[in-house]
Amino acid sequence: MSFTLIIFYILSAAILGCGLLAVTSAKIFRAAVYLLFSLIGIAGLFFLLENDFIAAVQIVVYVGGIVVLIIFSIFLTHRSGEQMPMPSKKRERIGFIAALAGFALAHGLIYNETFIPTHQPKIEQSVANIGSQMLDTNHFGFVLPFEVVSMLLLAAMIGAIVIAMKVKPKE
Amino acid sequence: MITMLMSVELILNSVNINFIAFNKYLFADKLDGIFFTIFIIVIAAAEAAVAIAIIINLYRSHNSIDVDETNEMKY
Questions:
Q1: What is the complex's ipTM, to 2 decimals?
Q2: Is B44 a domain residue?
Q3: How does DSSP assign A99-145, residue by residue?
Q4: Contact criterion met (CB < 8 Å) for A66 and B9
């Protein structure tokens, strides 16, 4: 029962508990705050997996960007104090069965598989290695998805501005 | 509608955890899991921005963001 295992169980309980509360809460602002705690727990899990870069990116982009955006949109479109309409009992039951089916599928796949770790020398997951491989054109470089994703970001930015723009009525 | 967006973010985060864990324990000589995770984070951020713009636009025309009340195609 090493300390890493205890920390992993605490973090997993926090992530799963906050995630469950986020999707079943009645007030929408509380759901956003539970999502915030769940994402911070996931960043903690990344720190436990010795991957500091992805943990930092997760905190900056998800917690500091997306959850803040969600909270802004809640303030712009809701009276956040009142209760949300809860789904009907039939929907809740079907959702629970679907979640259970997904869990059974994942469990069946992982439980019956023998995982063999590779014996090649470990590569250090530092920012220098990530950067130099991402911009590499030869050795399994990822420069093409990088450029495509930057075009996607441009399109998303322009699209979001165009959709949410207020059209002034012509005088 | 906003809770749907929050649920999608949870799903994408679960896939991120999967990629990083497999990269660390099974394929310690490659960095592919990290790259996929970075791309998933980027795409999730772009999708969240466009979804919020759609929600704001929907609120202007319908004055509510309940998914059951948006059932007509009229502009």
A1: 0.87
A2: yes
A3: HHHHHHHHHHHHHT-------SPPPP--HHHHHHHHT-SSSS--HHH
A4: yes
